[in-house]
Specification:
Elements (H helix, E strand, L loop, with lengths): L10 E13 L7 E13 L30 E6 L3 H17 L4 E6 L4 H5 L1 H4 L27 E5 L4 H13 L5 E5 L11 E5 L9 E4 L8 H9 L6 H4 L2 E7 L10 H18 L1 E7 L7 H8 L5 E2 L9 H7 L2 E5 L3 H7 L6 E4 L14 H13 L3 E2 L15 H11 L3
Parallel strand pairs: 3-4, 3-5, 5-6, 6-7, 7-8, 9-10, 9-12, 10-11, 12-13, 13-14
Antiparallel strand pairs: 1-2, 1-4
Length: 409
C-alpha cells in the first residue's frame, strides 16, 4: 500500500461519505464492498507552486519521477461510471494483478469537473483546478483526498484531464503516482506515463501500447468455466448448430430504425435456415426497446432461443457453447470479446455495406473491423458459417507484461 501523504498546504477538508469498492485477484471477480468517510480537498488561495524553472511539471517526461518499490503496489481504477469505459479499465487492472498477484486495487466512480474535462492539458499544470463536479449520489465515489495510489488507470477522453490533475496533486504531495490512460486522450501522449490505445486510434509514441481490440475481462478459461455452469436447458442448443447473435443498437453515429431491424431479421432468418442453426439472441445495454422482439418475430419459432430474466448472466457461457457468433457491426467491445473464443465470428452490418466496406461502418469503427478482418479474427457475415481458420484474439496478458516493463515494474 502506498504511504498516506498529507495534502498540500492551503487545502481544507470537506468530509463526504462514499462507498469504496475493493477487489483483488483472488478469486477473480470477487468484490468486497466497504464504506468509508473520505474528504474532498478543495484547495483555496493563490496558485503559487509552479516549479521554479517555470516549466509545467507535466510537460516533463514521466520517467523523471522515481518509482515506488514498497509492496503491495496499489492500483486505482477511476471512471465516470460509463459501462464500456469502466470495464476496460477494470480489465487492465485484472490483467496486471494476474501478473503481480500481491498487488491490490480499489475502484472509484467520479464526475469530473467540466473544467478538467474541457481543458485536460491545463488540468495537469494548474494545481488549484477542481477535480470533481458536485455529486450527491453515492454512486459518485470520490477518491481519498491526500492519499494516492502507485498506479491510476483511467479510460476515455472525459477522464484524461482528471488523471493529469490528480497526478499533479500527487506529485505536489511527494507521491510519484503513475497514470495509465486507455484510448486516445486527444492531448500529447508524453503527458501520461503510459497510453493504451486501439489500433484505430491515432495516438502513437514511445509510451503508447497499441491493441487490436478493446480491453475486456474474458479469457478462454472463464468462458469455458461459465459454459459448464449454464442452466441445463441450454444443453439442447448444443445438440444443434448453435449460433450466438450479439445485438448492439443505438450509438452516437446512428439509431437502429424499423428498416434496419426488418433487414437484420430477414437476413438472420435466411442464415438460420441455410445453416440449420439455432440462433441465441443476446441484447446489450444499447439495444433499443422492442428490437429483440422484432427480430425474434422474423425468425422461425423453432430457430431462436432467448435468455430468461430469472437466469444468471449466460453471456460468457454462450460464447463457449455456440459453434459460431454473429455480432452487429456497431459494437467494438462485443466483437473483441467474441474473438477470444477462436471460433467463427461474423460481423453483421446495420447500414448499407459494399465490397470495399463490408461492415457498413465509417471512420474509426470501420478501421477497427478492417483490421479484425485482415488479422483473421472476424469475417463479414455471409450465407454460411465459414470453416476458418480463425485467429484467436488474446491480448490482455501480453499487454500487461508490456505495460509492466514500460512502468519499470
Amino acid at each position: 500500500m502506498a504511504a498516506v501523504r498529507a495534502p498540500p498546504a492551503g487545502e481544507c477538508p470537506t468530509v463526504r461519505a462514499i462507498c469504496v469498492s475493493r477487489f483483488s485477484h483472488t478469486p477473480p471477480g470477487t468484490i468486497r464492498e466497504t464504506c468509508r468517510h473520505v474528504g474532498q480537498r478543495i484547495q483555496k488561495g493563490r496558485i503559487d507552486d509552479t516549479p521554479e524553472d517555470d516549466t509545467p511539471e507535466d510537460d516533463m517526461p514521466a520517467d523523471d519521477m522515481p518509482v515506488m518499490t514498497s509492496e503491495p503496489v496499489q492500483i486505482w481504477v477511476v471512471s465516470d461510471g460509463t459501462a464500456g469505459m469502466r470495464m476496460q479499465a477494470v480489465a487492465l487492472a485484472d490483467a496486471l494483478m494476474r501478473a503481480r498477484t500481491d498487488w491490490a486495487c480499489e475502484e472509484f466512480t467520479v464526475a469530473p469537473h467540466g473544467v478538467v474535462r474541457a481543458l485536460p492539458r491545463l488540468a495537469g499544470w494548474l494545481p488549484g483546478l477542481p477535480l470533481c463536479a458536485a455529486a450527491d449520489s453515492q454512486l459518485h465515489r470520490l477518491p481519498h483526498a491526500g492519499q494516492f495510489p502507485d498506479i491510476m488507470i483511467t479510460c476515455g477522453r472525459r477522464m484524461a484531464g482528471f488523471a493529469l490533475a490528480l497526478r499533479r496533486r500527487a506529485r505536489a504531495a511527494g507521491t510519484p503516482m503513475r497514470i495509465v490512460h486507455i484510448q486516445d486522450p486527444r492531448v500529447a501522449p508524453r503527458l501520461f506515463d503510459a497510453l493504451v490505445v486501439p489500433r484505430h486510434d491515432r495516438a502513437r509514441g514511445p509510451n503508447v501500447l497499441v491493441t487490436t481490440g478493446s480491453l475486456n475481462r474474458l479469457t478462454l478459461g472463464t468462458i469455458q468455466r461459465a459454459m459448464m455452469e449454464m442452466p441445463s436447458r441450454w444443453l439442447g442448443a448444443a445438440r444443434r448448430t448453435a449460433v450466438a447473435v450479439m445485438l448492439g443498437g443505438d450509438n452516437r453515429r446512428y439509431r437502429v430504425n424499423d428498416g434496419m431491424a426488418a433487414a437484420m431479421g430477414a437476413r438472420l432468418a435466411e442464415f438460420a435456415t441455410a445453416n440449420d442453426a439455432q440462433l441465441i439472441l443476446l441484447a446489450s445495454r444499447r439495444t433499443p426497446a422492442g428490437l429483440v422482439e422484432r427480430i425474434t418475430a422474423a425468425l422461425p419459432a423453432d430457430r431462436v432461443m432467448l435468455p430468461r430474466d430469472d437466469e444468471p448472466n449466460i453471456y460468457p457461457g454462450i460464447l463457449g457453447l455456440a459453434q459460431a457468433t454473429i455480432v452487429t457491426a456497431d459494437s467494438v467491445n462485443m466483437a473483441s470479446e467474441a474473438a477470444i473464443s477462436g471460433k467463427p465470428v461474423m460481423i453483421a452490418p446495420w447500414r448499407k455495406m459494399s465490397t470495399g466496406n463490408p461492415s457498413g461502418e465509417r471512420r474509426r469503427i470501420r478501421a477497427f473491423h478492417d483490421a479484425m478482418f485482415a488479422a483473421g479474427h472476424t469475417v463479414p457475415l455471409g450465407d454460411r458459417i465459414p470453416s476458418g481458420p480463425f485467429e484467436r484474439l488474446d491480448e490482455m496478458d501480453g499487454l500487461a507484461e508490456k505495460l509492466l516493463d514500460l512502468l519499470g515494474r
